[in-house]
Amino acid sequence: MSKRPFNPLRSAATALWLALLMGALLPGCANWPPQTDSLPGRKNTSNCDGSLSAADKTRLTGIEQLVGEGKFYAALAQLDALGIDAPQANLIRADALRRIDRTSEAQVLYQGLLNSCLDGRAQHGLGLIASKAGQQAAGLAYLQKARQALPTDSNIRNDLGYAYLLAGQYDAAEFEFLTVLDLNPQDAKASRNLVLLAFMQGKTDKALTLARKMGLDETTINRLQQQASKR
Q: Candidates 3.20.20, 1.25.40, 3.90.580, 3.40.50; correct CATH number of 54-150?
């Protein structure tokens, strides 16, 4: 069989066609594989506790207990001594700073934890800051997101219920307080808030019945009644 004579024009055209084809395909491959951590709505759960040693976790638990006991300055000092940069440490620091009214610093830390493994706790902190500042709508929005992230956290649901109460959304407030008491029947804050709600609705008999059923003393009942009258 005789060979076809070499045609330089045909070879050049073929090479050009292949180059154009590869140029069209390569951009589509440049972003492969997809970076799933940056997809909208996906929470970044990296470095939540995997990078912490057992000793660091134990110390952070102890420091968080200090915050729960109201020893905010001691907690901050212990965090400084521990000297680790981890989401849990930042959350504890934010909680302590919020409790001593250093809200600007706390906000920065909470915002840095949004869309992370501690998103619900961060939303909770931001909601409390906004509510205390009188930013009712913003506070409710943050607390609703916190409840969505951590639906069985009784502290979040109680704070959301109180925000609903202040907003005059009494049915929503009652739902949250009753949910808290189902989750944790010994929750004293939810018990008091439920009695306060009844007083604010003008249901004095119901409030007194609830208060006595929950074992509230007369001093607490009178204080809640006075608080309701000022709303």
A: 1.25.40
